[in-house]
Inverse folding.
């Protein structure tokens, strides 16, 4: 073990996001003398905004193979760390520390408190128990090597932090205001690692149609979204949509953003919303007739909200070009047909994908062939460990990103702590 020299640590973790906190806590739990260096004033700034502040802490899929199928071609790399620490260990970790969890649709797991703060509290307490020395307001400027060895991390102030092992957990480049500004990519490139150019992934979609802005804040479940290019259907998904002032977001949109981005390379893309995917147009027309019948002496503008949320109702009437003052008894078959068509095929024209500033994750990062996934150790520098968003691993929305942080953090923490004893 390293001596008690103030500046000679067993393990130095750079970056106090979820992956760094987990790695630091784990190495300390095993008896290592650990320092955590975070450039912000507070740890886990991004963690606290995850899941809209509720933190989708993991995905409830317990079968490792099923879970890893979501990571596409990267499953072959991930099998080894996930056989050491997977969803059941994550749940046990948080539950046994007093954070109860609940499972929501698509197996998304959240703290019962509905607050990301609960997750943060568990991690900080984990580190406190292991006596991790936490240095916030401590931006690392670069890392120094000697041959195949990481020698030190240099703070912006010029001070050197030396340690037997280093864990880089500086995240990707999405939402840079949280501290994830890609610093680790720069250092790792400088010392010879291959880093795939980070690009926005899981990103909201910006929409041209001005009416979308009027719906800002509206969220709807069980909507069928179909992407079209040159009026040819490309793919469909059913899920949740959230309208924003610039377009659409929410988990389903984030998950389709990659495919939309690919289609945009070849031309314009439209997204059609089917607001009633469970029934066909005939059935919907019958339901509309019933609503009109029940409100026969009311005006259309006061009636459509019986079928769809009120904000959407006025937008739909505007799009239909039917006079909103028309009494329901005067709505003819032709007008109903127009309304049904809009309810089943509400078209939006895609302007583009929003940028890194709005992305949930970055696709890109350190090439996986340069990491030994049994330990999360760099294949270039045996005393360097890489965890969390710094790795080039694409994945969908649904708790998979944080599970990746818990797994890689635990595995790196375990092996970084072991290596100082050897
Ligand atoms: C809006 C939003 C919602 C999300 N919701 C979810 C969700 O519900 N579920 C889910 O699974 N995933 C979610 N994610 C993704 C998830 O937050 C990330 O995958 C995760 O935070 C990555 O953790 P990390 O520790 O690798 O990096 P980060 O969380 O990016 O942390 C990196 C840390 O390193 C620090 N740092 C950077 N450079 C330096 C430096 N030079 N010196 C010292 N410190 C430095 C940063 O300040 C930061 O604290 C969400 C992301 C966003 C943006």
């Amino acid at each position: 073990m390293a001596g008690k020299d103030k500046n000679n640590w067993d393990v130095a973790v750079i970056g106090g996001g979820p992956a760094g906190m987990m790695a630091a806590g784990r190495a300390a739990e095993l008896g290592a003398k650990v320092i955590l260096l975070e450039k912000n004033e507070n740890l886990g700034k991004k963690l606290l905004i995850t899941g809209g502040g509720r933190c989708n802490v993991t995905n409830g899929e317990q079968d490792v193979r099923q879970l890893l199928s979501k990571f596409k071609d990267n499953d072959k790399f991930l099998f080894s760390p996930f056989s050491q620490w997977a969803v059941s260990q994550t749940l046990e970790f948080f539950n046994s520390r007093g954070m109860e969890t609940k499972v929501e649709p698509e197996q998304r797991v959240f703290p019962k408190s509905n607050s990301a703060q609960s997750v943060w509290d568990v991690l900080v307490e984990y580190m406190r128990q292991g006596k991790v020395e936490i240095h916030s307001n401590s931006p690392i400027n670069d890392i120094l090597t000697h041959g195949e060895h990481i020698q030190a991390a240099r703070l912006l102030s010029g001070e050197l932090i030396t340690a037997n092992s280093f864990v880089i957990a500086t995240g990707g480049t999405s939402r840079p205001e949280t501290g994830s500004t890609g610093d680790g990519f720069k250092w790792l490139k400088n010392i010879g690692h291959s880093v795939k150019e980070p690009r926005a992934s899981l990103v909201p979609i910006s929409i041209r149609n001005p009416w979308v802005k009027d719906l800002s804040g509206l969220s709807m479940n069980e909507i069928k979204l179909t992407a079209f290019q040159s009026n040819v259907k490309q793919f469909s998904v059913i899920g949740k949509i959230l309208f924003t002032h610039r377009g659409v977001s929410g988990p389903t949109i984030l998950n389709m953003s990659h495919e939309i981005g690919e289609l945009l390379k070849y031309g314009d893309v439209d997204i059609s919303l089917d607001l009633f995917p469970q029934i066909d147009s005939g059935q919907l027309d019958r339901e509309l007739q019933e609503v009109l019948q029940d409100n026969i002496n009311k005006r259309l503008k006061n009636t459509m909200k019986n079928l769809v949320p009120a904000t959407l109702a006025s937008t739909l009437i505007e799009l239909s070009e039917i006079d909103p003052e028309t009494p329901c008894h005067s709505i003819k078959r032709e007008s109903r047909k127009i309304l049904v068509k809009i309810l089943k095929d509400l078209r939006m024209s895609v302007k583009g994908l929003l940028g890194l500033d709005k992305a949930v994750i970055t696709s890109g990062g350190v090439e996986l062939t340069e990491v030994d996934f049994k330990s999360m150790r760099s294949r270039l520098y045996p005393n360097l460990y890489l965890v969390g968003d710094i790795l080039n691993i694409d994945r969908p929305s649904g708790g998979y990103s944080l599970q990746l942080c818990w797994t890689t953090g635990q595995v790196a923490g375990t092996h970084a702590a072991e290596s100082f004893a050897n």
Notes: The pocket of flavin-adenine dinucleotide is lined by residues 14-20, 37-40, 45-47, 49-51, 55-56, 139-140, 169-171, 174-175, 179-181, 183, 360-361, 388-389, 399-402, 405 (CB under 6 Å). Residues 12 and 166 are 5 Å apart (CA to CA).
